[in-house]
């Protein structure tokens, strides 16, 4: 900070809830089939979310039911194969 470069965009990891620099997170998008996919370009349609690059956060994501809450979905959300451990 203090370098006059403006603010750093912070995003919250939906797995652990930590706020981090956007660049340290993986962007995810929920597609219309309710599959959560990686969105490295940030160009996919649909609702976006972020998680840390750590394995534990990915693990949490596949274990918990919190995805439904995060995306306010009544249906189950699946993870794309590249998000599974
Ligand atoms: Zn995290």
Notes on the protein architecture:
The chain has 85 residues and is of the alpha+beta class. The chain has a single domain, classed as 2-Layer Sandwich (Hypothetical Cytosolic Protein, Chain: A), CATH 3.30.1230.10. The protein contains two helices and six strands. It has a four-stranded mixed sheet, with helices on one face. A two-stranded antiparallel ribbon has the order 1-2. Strand 3 and strand 4 form a beta hairpin. The chain is globular, with a radius of gyration of 13 Å. The protein starts with 9 loop residues before the first strand and ends in a 6-residue tail after the last strand. Bound molecules: zinc ion. Zinc ion (ZN) binds next to strand 5.
Ordered list of secondary-structure elements with their pairings:
Blueprint lengths: L9 E3 L6 E3 L3 E6 L4 E4 L8 E6 L2 H9 L2 H5 L7 E2 L6
Parallel strand pairs: 4-6
Antiparallel strand pairs: 1-2, 3-4, 3-5
Zinc ion binds next to strand 5.
Count of discrete alpha- or pi-helical segments spanning 4 or more residues: 2
CATH homologous superfamily classification: YlxR-like
Return Rg in Å: 13 Å
CATH class, named Alpha Beta
> What structural class should be given to the helix and strand makeup?
alpha+beta
Helix content: 10-25%
Q: Mean of the pLDDT scores?
A: 88
Second CATH tier, the architecture: 2-Layer Sandwich
Poorly predicted residue ranges: none
Outline, from the CA principal axes? globular
């Amino acid at each position: 900070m203090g370098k006059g470069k403006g603010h750093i965009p912070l995003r919250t990891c939906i797995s652990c809830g930590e706020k981090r620099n956007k660049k340290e997170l993986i962007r995810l998008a929920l597609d219309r089939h309710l599959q959560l996919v990686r969105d490295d370009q940030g160009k996919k349609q649909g609702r976006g979310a972020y998680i840390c690059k750590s394995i534990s956060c990915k693990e949490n994501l596949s274990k918990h039911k919190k995805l439904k809450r995060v995306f306010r979905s009544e249906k189950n959300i699946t993870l794309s194969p590249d998000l599974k451990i």
